[in-house]
Write a structure and sequence with these properties.
By secondary structure, this protein is an alpha/beta fold. The protein has 13 helices and 16 strands. Strand 10, helix 12 (about 310-325) and strand 11 (about 330-335) form a beta-alpha-beta unit. Helix 11 crosses helix 12. It comes from Streptomyces sp. JP95.
């Protein structure tokens, strides 16, 4: 059986025909990919508010994003920044895939996104009005702008996509869960699915909520703030942004005459048991199920895009799971998210987009910043610069705070232009 309960080998191939990227590495596929290859970091001191007095001052901010230029004016004041990002990325993914929703039956198109913190900045401003000026000053749109499903709803409304719509809330792992769900929707009759996720919690309220995990880096040096699998690993830098992907059946893509970045081959998810249970983390079993769902063997996987939590304990656990499934040092491992920070709901979709770009270009991006891999991990971590290979198949891993764990298997396609 597959990870979603369907017989293995019975799925229609799911093709990714469009990418929309809004990330600290740049807006658009071309800028993001150029930054990844060059190892150009998007981390820096937080500028959206004064972080003085907070233990975390470094984060990945999306450069040059102006909501009024990317989002219809009527929606800017009604929605949060995380929805602005998703609306812009969805528009870009549709254009990249040369897909016009107006030309397709509205109930054949679906939207499924991931969300983590919801509209924290919008909610913070409304709470400020409440406590400073009174309840009469709280806007009516507070009731929906903060909501996890706001992005799915706004994308659906804007593009007339009235098929199955939903949102997955599983922190960093949620982006893979959304893409797994998109493949399932294609199996049940949808023709196009906009899927992925974005996050935007770089505001005092949002950052304070993140601090409760105890996993954020306190380094004030952007070059040292996020070093997964490094001997100096001491937490991660947060970030904002993410990616939206247009997923459709291969048959539908052929009928429209468009090429794909690649295919979603397999997916699985699980949840870590309580630490007090004595049972091991589920990552290794989740990876095995995702690979089995893809209908391939572990030896067919050419690269792993790691979750890369950035804390010694979680890095060791991930390395152990990778070695258990693939063999110690057998498969290259990379974490280009060191350029952006961890984007929560937006992180895994961006990793999938990066993996598809890498596979179609025949290159494995490196893990910038990591100069001294921690001893004893046993993984082949790609550092120092991109590695030219003939890689065709990748596994993308994601773990969310509290135990959410997911894995997605993708295969490169025939689209090599990264100019969108």
């Amino acid at each position: 059986m597959s990870a979603l309960g369907l017989p293995a080998g019975r799925r229609s191939p799911a093709a990714v025909t469009g990418l929309g990227i809004v990330a600290p590495t740049g807006i658009g596929v071309r800028r993001h990919w150029e930054s990844v290859l060059a190892g150009k970091s998007g981390l820096g001191r937080i500028t959206r508010f004064d972080p003085a007095g907070y233990p975390v001052e470094v984060a990945g901010e999306v450069p040059g994003f102006t909501a009024g230029e990317q989002v219809p004016r009527g929606l800017v004041d009604r929605t949060d920044r995380f929805t602005h990002f998703a609306l812009a990325a969805a528009e870009a993914a549709l254009a990249d895939a040369d897909a016009d929703p107006a030309q397709l039956p509205e109930y054949d198109m679906a939207v499924v996104t991931a969300a983590s913190s919801g509209g924290t900045e919008f909610g913070q401003h409304e709470m400020e009005r409440l406590y400073q000026r009174g309840p009469a000053w709280v806007g009516a749109y507070q009731s929906i702008a903060w909501f996890y499903a706001a992005t799915t709803g706004q994308v659906s409304i804007r593009h007339g996509m009235r098929g199955p719509c939903g949102v997955l809330c599983a922190e960093q792992a949620g982006g893979l869960d959304a893409l797994g769900q998109s493949r399932r929707l294609l199996d049940t009759g949808s023709r196009l699915v906009l899927s992925g996720g974005t996050d935007a919690s770089l505001c005092p309220y949002g950052l304070t909520a993140q601090l409760s995990t105890g996993a954020l880096s306190a380094s004030d040096d952007p070059a040292r703030a996020y070093l997964p699998f490094d001997e100096a690993a001491a937490g991660y830098a947060p970030g904002e942004g993410g990616a939206m992907l247009l997923v459709e059946t291969e048959r539908g893509a052929r009928e429209r005459g468009v090429r794909s970045y690649g295919r979603i081959l397999g997916y699985a998810a699980g949840f870590d048991p309580p630490s007090s249970s004595g049972r091991p983390p589920v990552l290794a079993s989740v990876v095995r199920r995702a690979v089995a769902d893809a209908g391939i063997g572990a030896d067919a996987v050419d690269v792993v895009f790691a979750d890369a939590a950035g804390t010694p304990e979680l890095d060791r656990a991930e390395a152990a799971a990778i070695n258990e499934v693939f063999g110690a040092g057998r498969v290259p491992v990379t974490a280009p998210k060191t350029l952006t920070g961890r984007l929560y709901a937006g992180g895994a979709p961006l990793d999938v987009a990066t993996a598809l770009l890498a596979l179609s270009a025949g290159v494995i991006p490196h893990t910038p910043g990591v100069e001294r891999p921690a001893p004893g991990l046993g993984i082949d971590l790609v550092v120092g610069g991109p590695r030219r290979t003939g890689a065709r198949t990748a596994v993308v891993l994601a773990r969310g705070h509290g135990g959410f764990t997911s894995a997605l298997v993708v295969e490169g396609g025939d689209r090599t232009d990264h100019t969108a």
